[in-house]
Structure formats: structure tokens, C-alpha cells
Amino acid sequence: MVRCLVCGREFTRIPPAHLKSHGISGYKEYKKLFPNAKTGFEGENNPFYGKRHTEETKKKIGEKSKGRTPWNKGRRGYTYEEIYGEEKAKLLKELRRQKAKERWKDPNDPFNRTGKEPFNKGKPWSEWMSPDGMQKAKKTQFRKGHIPWNKGIPFEVWAPPELVRKLEDWRKSERCKYLARKALEYINKVLMKDPEFRSRVIKNWWKVVHGKPNKAEKWLGRLINKVCPNEYRYNDGWFILAGKIPDFVNVNGKKKLIELFGELWHTKEEEEERINFFKQYGWDCLVIWYEELIHNQPKVMEKIYNFTYGGDYNES
Fold it and tell me: For residue 72, what are the CA distances in angstroms to 58, 66, 76, 77, 272?
């Protein structure tokens, strides 16, 4: 027997009509008012305890529910804070976290998937998926050569305004910034220590940012080919030396590099630093400055010739 905590009357199971007579809409509201109250439908006292609907019953329920507005449409559930108050809610949440940690430690717990392989790993769909699931998957998966309808269209154009706003709010949030910092820390501490990964990242970055020569580099490239034909090749990321990507690399067996420095981005001290940096790996480096490339081309041509072959450059 269970006792109604409003009037004190005893029941085998408290009927909803009795709760409505006290102005309580249902069991949820009753539980909210009296968190420790029992209704008589808990556990084995519930007539449906341990039972399942048959397929036929499920179909009947589905047919009757067609076109009916769900009872919980537009509603929201109660939070721990609303039901128990701030202090008790904090304790209950911590208790739930502790229980979850204990469950994950237990290797026999069915919810613990740590170290376990997926049941369908390496198996074709036809072995583990239902026929209905197969039909749905075939309709939704991309075919070979299929082009998504929104390919090349900016996200802000085709996405709903509310979704765009939520994404912008997420990008500005502290949580997003924290996760980005953690990801960068992991990349810098772990992945970038691998020389192969580091080289691949730098090469891809260079192709995206600086894959083609700018006007000054094209200009210098024409002078180099005029003075030293077939000696140097523009470096679009194909050659990386200790994380550095020099502008022009000798392709005839000579360990010689040519760099183009702009006064806006580099200082005179960097010229000596760059030369010494490549020298420790056995490479000679010539630095050409943007100003001398514009105002004194004969001198630049002579420097390139002398650096590559030695001696003075004779244009004839």
C-alpha cells in the first residue's frame, strides 16, 4: 500500500483521477512536489514491468497516433535545479558522475566499450543490418560522382539564420577557444615532433598560402634564368630544409639557394641569420633584397652569376 502525501489516503496504486482532485495534473507534478513519494507503479508493481509490446500492437499504436499532436510537443523537462534546488542538484550530479566512472572501470559492464571492437567491424552491411535499414542507407548514401547540392556555396547562404547565429556564438564562446588551444597544444607537443608529419604540414600550408610566385619572385626568376639558365627552380613547397622553404633551389647538384627578402617583412640582421642557418646544413645561400631588385638589376645579375659560377658576369 502507498499513501497519498496530500490527503493521507492509502491506495494500492494512486490513480491519476485522485491526483487531479487535488489540482495535480499527473505523476510528474506529484513527484516534483514530493520527490520521495511513491505512486505504487514503481518496479514490479507496474503492470507493464518486464513486458514488451508485440509487433502487431506497435502497428496499432502507430496507426492510432497518426496525425495526433504529441503530448510533449513544445514542452521541456525539469532540470535538477528546478526539482531539488541548487545545493542538492550539485550533490546529485556529482553522485551520477562518480557512478558513471565506476561503471566505466568495470570491464563486465555492457556500457563499457573501452578496448572492445565494434560488433560489425569488417562485416558488410548485408550481414548485420536489417533489410529496412539497407533500403534507407542505399537511398541516403552518396553515389560515385555525386555532387552535393550545397558544394561551393558559403554556409551562411544556405544554412538557416538561427543555425548560423548559433555557430557564430559557439565560435566566440570560451569553450570553443579552450578546445582550439588544446588541439594546438597536442599538435605542437606530439604530432609536430614527427619529422614526416611536420614536413607534410609545412608543405601543404605553403601550397595554400604561397603556392605560386608573386610578382617580385617572377621578376627575380626571369633574371636568374637569364644569367644562369636551367640552374635554379622556384620552390613551391617541393623542397624543405629544417622547416625552411627557400625561394629558389639549385637543381644541378650544387648546394646553393637564393632567397628574396622584402624590407617590409625582413631586417638586415635576418640576412646573416638565414645564411648561417643554411650553412650548418651544408648549403650556401644568397639573399636578394627587393629594393636592389627594382633599382639595380645589373648588380643583382652580377651577384647571382658570381654566387653560382664565380667570376664576373658578362652580358654579351
Answer: 20, 15, 8, 9, 73
**Strand order of the sheet with strand 232-234?**
232-234, 248-250, 256-261, 284-289
Residue 34 domain-assigned (yes or no): yes
User: Cα angle at 23 between 21 and 29, to 5 degrees?
Assistant: 115
The candidate with the shortest Cα–Cα distance to 221, out of 247, 254, 252, 255, is: 247
- 10-residue averages of pLDDT along the chain (316 residues): 84 84 82 82 76 87 85 77 86 86 74 71 82 77 71 82 87 86 79 75 64 80 87 82 83 88 82 89 89 86 86 66
Task: Classify residue 272: in a domain, yes or no.
Answer: yes
Is the separation of the CB atoms in 16 and 40 below 8 Å?
no
Alpha-carbon Rg for the chain, nearest whole angstrom, is 36
In this structure, the answer to whether residues 200 and 217 fall within a common structural domain is: no
Task: For residue 303, give the C-alpha cell.
Answer: 651577384
The verdict on 253 and 300 lying in the same domain is yes
User: For residues 277 and 285, what is the distance between their CA atoms, to the nearest angstrom?
Assistant: 9
Question: What count of residues does the chain have?
Answer: 316
Residue 273 grid coordinates: 641569420
- Strand 284-289 versus strand 256-261 pairing type: parallel
Q: Do 198 and 270 fall within a single domain? A: no
CA distance 227 to 248: 14
In this structure, which amino acid lies at residue 234?
A: Y
* pTM for the whole structure: 0.38
**18: Cβ–Cβ under 8 A, 6 or more apart, which residues?**
4, 9, 11
What backbone torsions phi and psi does residue 88 show, to the nearest 5 degrees? -65, -35
Element (H, E) at 248: strand 248-250
Per the structure, the complete domain to which residue 8 belongs is given by 2-53
